[in-house]
Amino acid sequence: MSERELYCDACEGVEPFEAPPCADGHGADCPELVCTGCGAAVLIAAVVPHLTRPTDQRRQAARRRAA
C-alpha cells in the first residue's frame, strides 16, 4: 500500500491517505485513496485537456475577413 498526505474534508486537516488493495490491477497507482484517520474515500482523476489547432483553411479564412 502506498501512502500520501492530503487534505481530508471530514477530518478538516491534512491526513495520511493510503491506497487500499486494488482489485482492478492498478497497484500503487490506484486512483482510489482512503483517509487513515476517518476512512473517507477519495478518487484521484487526472484531467487531460485536448488542445487542437485550427486547420489551414480556417486560418486563411480568418485572415481574409480581417480588415
Give the termini distance in whole angstroms.
62 Å
DSSP helix fraction: 10-25%
CA-based shape: elongated
Number of strands: 4
> Radius of gyration in whole Å, from Cα?
22 Å
Structural class: alpha+beta
Approximately what portion of the residues adopt beta-strand conformation? 25-35%
Order the strands across the largest sheet as they lie in space. Answer: 1-2-3-4
- How much is the average pLDDT? 78
Unreliable spans:
none
Q: What string gives the helices and strands in order? A: EEEEH
Tally of individual helices = 1
- Oligomeric description of these chains: single chain
Largest sheet: 4 strands, antiparallel
Topology of this protein?
Blueprint: E1 3-8, E2 13-18, E3 32-35, E4 41-43, H1 56-65
Model description:
The protein has one helix spanning 56-65; strands at residues 3-8, 13-18, 32-35, 41-43. It has 67 residues and is α+β, with helices and mostly antiparallel strands. It has a domain at 1-46. Strands 1-2-3-4 form a 4-stranded antiparallel β-sheet, with no helix packed on it. A hairpin with a 4-residue loop joins strand 1 and strand 2 (13-18). The longest helix is centred in the C-terminal third of the chain and has 10 residues, at 56-65.
